[in-house]
Amino acid sequence: GGVVRRREGRFEALTTKDGLASDNVITLYWDRHDNLWIGTLGGLSRYRAGVLTTFRTKDGLPEGAVYAMLEDKDGNFWVGTEGGLCRFRNGAFEVFTEAEGLSGNRIRCLFEDREGSLWAGTFGAGLNRFQDGKFTIYSASEGLASNGIGPLYQDRSGDIWIGTLGGGVSRFRDGRFTTLTSADGLANDRVESICQDREGSLW
Q1: Which residues contact 9 (CB under 8 A, 6 or more apart)?
Q2: Given CA atoms 103, 74, 32, 44 in this order, what sign does their dihedral have?
Q3: pLDDT in tens, 38-56
Q4: I want to staple 22 with a disulfide (CB 3.0 to 4.6 A). Which of 33, 40, 74, 160 is the partner?
Q5: Average pLDDT in the 189-203 region?
Q6: Which pLDDT belongs to residue 16?
Q7: How confident is the model at residue 196 (pLDDT cuts 50, 70, 90)?
Q8: Quick one: pLDDT at residue 63?
Q9: Contacts of residue 186, Cβ cutoff 8 Å, sequence gap at least 6
Q10: Which secondary structure element, helix H or strand E, spans residue 19, and what is its range?
């Protein structure tokens, strides 16, 4: 378990023995300051200049697993956890939960669009857009394919594509959703990844 680095032909591991939050690693993120952030089932760790720092509930992080991380254009570092959405800046965590307008506390994915809005997908409570300090919630009742959110992607034309965990894929354009499913030719209604090639085709 843990996280492993291959350097100069050798593998080097970081585990709980070195201070890692958990040996069950879910996601990794390299930020602009050369920090490696490690999201685990047991919390969040940061590896910088050979030093491992772990953040837990006593440091302001919600309890539970870390599933998503993102550094926005302003340098804020966002963390999606089972207990809510966190913004880390100036050495402290600010936590957003249902009490602050989030649709659900179990965050699965994070994405920043070209306008600077932060999108947070949940495991079963739909999609959140954070803009100007406020959340806008999108769910199946607004036309979203499913409330279980997978990957988020913005194509060259500015449309945002939302993969879901069983409902197909939705396109968000001009404030409205259009959904495509297996009935439209999609191979499977569970979508795990989205990207666009040089010719403009969406995969």
Answers
A1: none
A2: negative
A3: 999 999 999 999 999 999 9
A4: 40
A5: 97
A6: 97
A7: very high
A8: 85
A9: 168, 169, 180
A10: none
Tell me, what's the pLDDT at 44? 97
Amino acid, single-letter form, for residue 203: W
In this predicted structure, what is the pLDDT of residue 64?
A: 83
Could you give the 3-state DSSP secondary structure of residue 142?
helix
Token reading at 203: 């995969």
Stretch (H or E) spanning 188: none
What lies within 8 Å, CB to CB, of 40 at 6+ separation is 20, 21, 22, 23, 24, 25, 26, 65, 66
Residues 49 and 26 sit within 8 Å (Cβ to Cβ): no
CA 109 to chain CA centroid, Å, is 3
- Pair type for strands 66-71 and 51-55: unpaired
- Terminal-residue alpha carbon distance, the chain: 32
Rounded CA-CA distance 37/49 in Å is 12
Strands 160-164 vs 149-154: parallel, antiparallel or unpaired: antiparallel
